Structure formats: C-alpha cells, structure tokens
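Submission sheet (multi-component)
Chains listed below:
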Amino acid sequence: MKSVTEILEQLKAIAENPRAQKDALIASGKKVVLTAPVYTPEELVHSLGMVPMGAWGGDIELMEAKRYFPAFICSIVQSLVELGIKGVYDGVSAVIIPSLCDSLKVVGENWKYAVPNIPFLPMTYPQNRKPEYGKEFTKKGYEKLIEELEKISGETFEDGKLAQSIRIYNEHNALMRELSEVLADHPEVTAAQRSVVFKSAFFMLKEEHSKVIRELLEALKEQKPGEAKIKIMTTGILADSPSLLNIIDSNGLQIVADDVAAESRQYRTDALEDTTALDSLSGKFCAMDHCSVLYDVEKKRIDLIVETAKNHGARGVLMVLTKFCDPEEFDYPLIKKACDAAGLPIILIEVDRQMENYEQAGTMIETFKDMLGKNS
Amino acid sequence: MSQEVKKERPAPDPNSAKYKLNAIAMKAYADAQAAKDRGELIGWCSSNFPVEIPETLGIAVCYPENQAAAIAARGAGAKMCEISEADGYSNDICAYARISLAYAKIKDAPEQNMPQPDFMLCCNNICNCMIKWYENLAKELNIPMIMIDIPFNPDYEVSDAEVEYIKAQFWDAIHQLEEITGKKWSDEKYKEVMEYSGRTSRAWLAATSCAKYTPSPFNGFDLLNHMAVMVTARGKVEAADAMETLLKEYEENHATGKSTFREEEKHRIMFEGIACWPWLRATSTGLKSRGINMVTTIYADAFGFIYKDFDDMCRAYAKVPNAINLELARDKRVKLCKENHVEGLLVHTNRSCKLWSGFMYEMSRQIGETCNIPVASFDGDQADPRNFSEAQYDTRVQGLTEIMEANKGV
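Outcome: structure written.
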C-alpha cells in the first residue's frame, strides 16, 4: 500500500503538469474537451468517450490576451485565453464555456477569434433554476451541446452511457466530500497538499481519480493525525496559488473545510434518479445552490459558510478574492456581516493569476493567525 | 476666484420634444412618489426589464440606473461610491450598483431622490452584475425580488427554447406581481401598451435615422438623454407623442438646414458605450470643439422595440445590446455606421461595465476594418469620476481627429 505522502506526490505531479497529462491522453487516442469554470456538464463529454479537462487558466503573465481584454476582466478567463493563444491547449478537440458571469460571457466571444483552432462550445444555463421551465431550458441546452459533442467525438449519444457516467461522477463527488471531511482530522496534510487533491481532479478521468482518492482514504486511516493547527475555512473562486498556500502552511493554519468554487463547490450536488439520465443531469444543475454565480435571492451561501465553519471548528474564514470577480465582490460585504454577527473572524485576501508579491498577503495572514491564536 | 456667469436662457417651449421628454423622465419619479404616498407598493426596476409588465399592471416603478446616472451627472458619484466602499464593496464593482446600494442605505441624495422600494424587478439581459446588485438590495431591505433571466445568447438567432423559457418567466413575473400588489393583468390594457410602445419605437428609430442626412439635424449627445424615456416609458402615450414630436423637429431641422449640433459638422463619429455621466461636459466639449458630431450610438437601434405579439416581445428582449453575441452586435453597429456615413469610432472602455467592454477590442477592430474607419478608445466610467482622465480623452480624440482629417485629405 502506498503512503499518504506517496499518493499526494503522485497527485501533485498531475496537478502541476496538466499539459503533460493532456498530451499523454491525446497520444493514447483519447479526445480531450476543455471545461471552463464554473460548472459544465462534464458527464456528457465523458459519456461520449472523451476526457473533460478543467481549464481555469494559469499563473502566467498576460501578453497576448491584452489584445482582447481590458485590464479589469478577471485573470482566470484572461489567462485561459492567453494559454489558448500560446498553444498550451493545442490538440484538444473543443472548449465548453458556460455564461454564468459577465466575464465568462465575454471570454467565449473573444475565444472564437483569439483561439480559432479550438472550437468554442457555449453552454447557456438558466438562472431561474427552480421552476420546471428552468429544468426544461437546461435540458434543451444539453441537447444542443450533445449535437456538437457528437460531431466532435464521432460517437452517438446514448442515455444508458450517460447513466453510467453519472454513476461515476456521483461516486467521485461522494469520495471528494468524504476526503474533505477526513482531511479535517489530519492537520499534517498541508494546505498545499490538500489543494493538489482537488486540482488533480480536473485533469484526470473521474473513475481514475476516484481510485486514487480511495487509496488516499485508506492510507489516511493508517496514518496517525499530526499535531493540531489553527483551523480555518476558505471561500472564493480559486485558492490554488502556491505562494498563498505556503503562507497558510508556514503560519500553522489548517484548512478544515472550504467553499471554494474550484474545490468543494464542484462536489456538493449529485445527479438524482429521474425519467432519463439526461433529465437527471438537468436536475443536477437546477438543484445547485450556495454559489456566487447562481442566482439566489436568499443568499443561502452566506449561511452555509457560517454553518460549515462552525461545524468544523474553524476559528476564522479566509476569503480568497480573485480580483475583478464581481459575483464574489458583491457577496463579500454580506459574508463579512454574517461572520461578524456569528463572532467568526474573516479576512479578505485579493489575488490574481499574475500576482508575484505576496508580502502584503503574508503580513495579513500572520496578523490573522495571531488574532485567531489569541481567541483560542 | 472667478465666478461663472450664466447666460439667461429662454424658457423652454412646452411643445418641444426636449421639454416633453424631460417632463416624462421627471414625471416618472413624481408618479412613483405619489403612488407610494397613496400607500401603493412600488418597485425598483432594472433598465431592460420588460416595462410592459408594470405598465400593464399599473404599477409604479423607479429605475436605479437612471437615478445613479443622474446622481453622477450632478456631481455626487464619488461621494455615493465611497459610502458603499466603506461597507466593503470593492471599487471594481459597477458604479451604478455602488451608488444604488449607498442610496438604499442612506435614503437621501439631493441630486436625485426617489421612493424606497417594496419589491425589486430584475432582468439580467444587460448583465449578471444586475442579479448580484438586486439580490443584495432585496436581502438588505428584506423585500421580494422578481427575477427574469434572459441569458446572454451566444448564437445569432434567438432559439425557440429561449423564447419558451423567457415567456414562462414573464407569466411567472406577472403572477407574482399580481399577488404582491393585488393588481390584475388585462389583455386589453396590454394591447394598448404594446401599441404605444410600437408607436414610440417607430418614431425613435425614424428620428435617430435622421443622422443619415449630412449635416445631421441633431447632436448625438441628445440621444443619451432621450434614451431614458425609451427605456422606461415607451409604453406610455405621452412617450409616443414626445418621440413623434422629436422626429418632426429633426425632419424640420433637415429641411431648414438647422441642427442641435451648434458647430460646423466637420466629422461624424459613432460613440460606443454608456456616457461618462460625471464628465459629460468634458466629453462633449472635446468633440464639439473639433467639429465632431457623434451622430449615432447603438442606442439608436437598441430601443426600437417593435414586436407583434407576446412571443415576439419575448424575442425582442433577448436582442438587447448586452445579450447578443459579437457577430450580431458588430453587424448592428456596422449597419448604423454605413447608414449614417460615420467616419470614425470612439469607444468608451467603461470600467463599470465588464460585459460591454469585455469583447469591445475585438469587435471594434472588426467594425473599423469592415467600415474602413479609424477607431480610438479611452478609459472612463459611467458614474465613478475617479476613473476618467481628461488628458487621455483629449489625446485619444485628437488622434482620431487627425486620422479622419488625413482620410479626407484635409
């Protein structure tokens, strides 16, 4: 049996080099379809025998993308286009981009001209997800996407195959939820290591990632939990910056739960039994909630952050705000108010994918740690 | 310290389009306040929410975007933005939203007051930022929100699936409003509203198309003011009457060689984006002083809501400027440039509007190439005065002017 460290090293290698993973998949005869943030129907791609790969941009300097975007568009989508122009995604068969926020709406339009060699497949989701007509519109959107994916894959869509893919995805969701809980009891697993578990999931077939997660869960059972650290919860769109994670680790903080879009938000909702597998998948999107890019007048996400932090014994909340992400920027004042009311300290760290100087973030997190330490 | 000496202006002619249009815009606030005073429930409404719904139901609404523009134009944009920023709202958020959230908190802005809402009417066909802004207002004020989701359409045509989705939401919104306000939908009243809206729209399209004449019988900055009525009141008989008056005036101006553009019209440009309300005079003067008339904007096309029935109305609302893909957005602008003999394109890269500005670089390149006209852009903001540099604006406009002159062999 592999050790926890060995498994985490294996996942780190994948998380840090998605390009190699993509090239290997293509070389093995697989077709790869990129899936942009925040939610896409990966199960459809999977059911047609292709590999969906998450594309959340990268930590690179923006050069070519500046020809398409003004500076105040978020760096996730700008770096996605930058990587496309630079040829990093060459060989993939298409990119699916949902229009869940204003920046995602414009990235698709720019993609057509900036990266013409990779077809853009738009995914239009409803914001009014709860009434039946919202589900119907989701299904129509999926049917349209299926037509495009059939052309790319050369395969014919089968509802039975989608049912199999849904089972694989639901199982993976459950494992990721379980793992997040188990890691809360293992302070010796660093924030950087926790991050690669989530990040690697975007670059592997889910059935394969599930296998590794099962091994990891088994290995964790055998490993004695390390010395306790100060428990915190993270929230935001993306929190995978190595510099930021190092600051969290070097300050002796442990992430015991997250509300990060690229992490736990991906795995909260399963597709439930329905008339057909396609209905089931449509229902999955409509059942989603607690997210800044999904309309919710009750703003239940805010209560969920407070509840999750409390349930996991987190002493504070770290909001990692991707600069120029207005869905998150709008939620922040209300999250802060709710945390303040609950006596839960919260800190806001603004990041982007071009950030090199983390000194200020370091100082802020150090002060935050000192404050949480005193509250204990 | 020098004191500005204001010239005495003649009293406006109450039969003029300008007078009538201003009166409609101001009456909207007064009507909402009067309804509130009578104890009726009133709403705050996003600018491209289907106005036919509150109009048919006889519900008074106010428009926070118009209010924010008025507050910004009258000099209080920064003050209001800073109030929201102190509450934790990033200064990267849309300035209309920051002003509106501040107003909901302090409930007084002498620059433009309006009654507080009992419910929110939101439609995201202009942006998803609108959803977040209204969610927060509904939550903070503890009032209901009615949400009509008109997604950004990545295709050139509006699909039947989208029309069905929008239609279902329109009826849902109507039923929710009936329940909240106790007012009832009337098909007859709706037909009347649709008829006025059609009349208003046809007159607007005809009036704005008068820019085809050289020189243009109007200064394009007029459109920025008049469009408020198109957005909020086009289903009213007064609006139809005022727009028909505007058309008549423009035709008369052409016939008599007059124009509301008071300078010699040396160049004709299209302006792209929302006006820089806090810097309206600076942006206008920078053009006028060079003899540049901004003859058209996408507003000229955008608010011509002509539809034949309820389904068609749903389709029309999915075709507003910020809900359409680059190709359709480009083609509409190319048509305006060609029909109105446009010689240059001036693009406002609006810090407040990610959606409007987000694919503008590529689209304006394509418009410039297709129409063979120069393109210049400047950084600004629709309501936050801190995001505009007069020097940069001047340099960019000068650059555009020089190319237009060179193209004419001046």
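Remark: The longest helix of chain A spans residues 159-184.
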